[in-house]
Amino acid sequence: MDFWVFMLVMCLLIPCVMIGFGIYFRNHPPKKINYIVGYRTARSMKSKETWDFAHRHSGRIWAICGLILLPVSAAVMLLALGKDDDTVGLFGAAVCMIQVLVMILSIIPTEIALKKNFDENGKPLDPESRSIL
Question: Model pTM?
Fold first, then answer.
């Protein structure tokens, strides 16, 4: 039971981090473009506008995904309640791998939105062709 509780906490950690950083970056993108903290892709680092846009967009995606992953992860881990440690470990590993995959795949919609809203130099496109956040 102790191992199950430990794995449950570990599995809920990633969604909680996604929610926390998602809300934070959506409301407070890093002030300066940097290579250490934030959503760092070649397209997002073209200009201050792309930097802020990418953080707001990816922050919203992370918050939503985290809110979805939190109860789903808990429900999956409930299926392992009372099972042996190996089974609990497998359930926990599978849940965490899926969560990391969701984090990585969240790059795709943000990059698509950047491409739709900014040119290759990071300059905003005309207002008629821009998509709304």
Answer: 0.86
